[in-house]
């Protein structure tokens, strides 16, 4: 069961949309190695607006993810890929349907 999540909004710099898409695709193998990341989605919200939504069973899992490889890569590439700093929102999950 998931109880907490992150919603990260990403605004690509003009001309960097494909690179942001590739960054998100490349993040999947990294989060697959995180046992407490129950669900992870790299999403496109518009032509230059992207996002990440991920969910965790508890706060410890969320904090482990924030200290992990995807978060480090995101912050390392933020200046090159994004027109504004990533907006990271910590959210509570009220209801969820997951496989299994």
Task: Give a brief outline of the structure.
The chain has three helices and four strands, in the order βαββααβ. It has helices at residues 17-32, 59-66, 69-81, and strands spanning 4-11, 39-44, 49-56, 87-92.
Major sheet size, sense and barrel closure: 4 strands, antiparallel
Number of strands: 4
List low-pLDDT spans: none
Q: How would you write the strand order of the largest sheet?
A: 2-3-1-4
Which structural class matches the secondary elements? alpha+beta
Tertiary shape: globular
Radius of gyration: 13 Å
Count of helices?
3
Q: Mean pLDDT across all residues, rounded? A: 96
Structural commentary:
The protein has helices at residues 17-32, 59-66, 69-81, and strands at residues 4-11, 39-44, 49-56, 87-92. With 100 residues, it is α+β, with helices and mostly antiparallel strands. It has a 4-stranded antiparallel sheet with strand order 2-3-1-4. Strand 2 and strand 3 form a beta hairpin. The protein is globular. It starts with a strand and ends in an 8-residue tail after the last strand.
